[in-house]
Amino acid sequence: MKVIFVYILLLGLLAGCPPAGDGAGSSDSAEPSETSSGSSTSGDPTTTTTTATTAELSTDLPEPPPACGNGIVEPGESCDEGEDNGDTRDCTSTCAHAVCGDGLVRSEPSNPGDVEGCDAGEANQDGMYGGCQTDCTPGPFCGDGVVDDGFEECEPTVDDGGPACMQDCFYEGRVVFVSSVAFAGNFTNFVVEGTGLDGGDEACRQLASLAELSRPESFHAWLGSADGSPVDRISPKIHDASAHVRLVDGTIVAMDWPSFVSSTHDHAIDLDETGEPVDNELVWTGVDVSGQANEYACHDWSSDLAEEIGAFGCTAYADERWTEFGYDFCSYMFRLYCIQTAMPGDMGF
């Protein structure tokens, strides 16, 4: 009985709800409105509710990479002094401790005793002239107060009683010497290429090179023949004709090139390329005191026969006899005068 009553009650309730759009009855409820999420609400139709999803911000950020120069010693750095980093200081611009051999000259260390005079890196070498030693101090150099044989003739800071020493550690002027070797009239007893004037020049250059003189390639033999005279073949190659002409020890022979060629000398040419004295020796020339070739030249310096004649000078004299002293057979062994056309600072020869 109770079941039947409930069923009838439900039917009655359902029957009391008028269909939508039916004009019968009224309602205070507004039509539902959709929200952005698709749900409906009731109430003021002008009011909506919006639901949004916001990503959560992470507070677990990665650490910044190491930065040389921030004043903090970080992985991969051996030091970091911030703004005090520098390639001339204790800590370099790459945050590495400055050490001798790194190729950087530490000139501003915190400890004055750590100053480096040079640093050529892997090229550091003890005793190398003009180089940097393995303790980062300069090797031998022009101006260190010590005359370094093979590289210097003098030191500007040392008064040796000789002529002026230039800033490149060579005496002022061009060099002239008498050869330490004696030759027959064609020079073939010495290891040279060819004969004639070229053979004489080559002999002078080889001797100058063996003696480690500056610019050995610029030496010429004081010889004349039908192929040319010193005035013709050497004068055009002279750089700075106003420079002194001197011996290897700096002794001045002539004040300039014109004086050397055309007059007697201030001093005899009596030292060889090594600085050894050569007193009263005969020298092949074929040249008179004015620098012109004469007719006695051992068949243009190609003969060592006794049938040929050559003119010679003598190292004992500074007057015209230095180049024009006598004549003799080309089979005899006499010296050569060798004169430098270019000086150490010249660009050519």
Give a quick summary of the entry:
The chain is mostly loops and 349 residues long.
Detailed description of the structure:
This protein is mostly loops and 349 residues long. It is 12% helix and 10% strand. The chain has 3 domains: 70-140, no CATH class; 142-170, no CATH class; 174-340, Roll (Mannose-Binding Protein A, Chain A). Strand 1 and strand 2 (40-41) form a beta hairpin. The chain is elongated, with a radius of gyration of 50 Å. Residues 1-18 and 20-55 have low confidence and may be disordered.
CATH class of the largest domain: Alpha Beta
Order of helices and strands: HEEEHEHEEHEHEEE
- For the record, the count of structural domains works out to 3
Question: What is CATH's topology name of the largest domain?
Answer: Mannose-Binding Protein A, Chain A
End-to-end span in angstroms?
A: 142 Å
* Alpha plus pi helix count: 5
**Shape estimate:** elongated
Alpha-beta content class? little secondary structure
Helix and strand topology:
Blueprint: H1 2-15, E1 33-34, E2 40-41, E3 174-178, H2 196-210, E4 219-221, H3 230-233, E5 245-246, E6 252-254, H4 257-262, E7 282-284, H5 298-301, E8 309-314, E9 326-329, E10 335-340
Parallel strand pairs: 3-5, 7-10
Antiparallel strand pairs: 1-2, 3-10, 4-10, 5-6, 7-8, 8-9
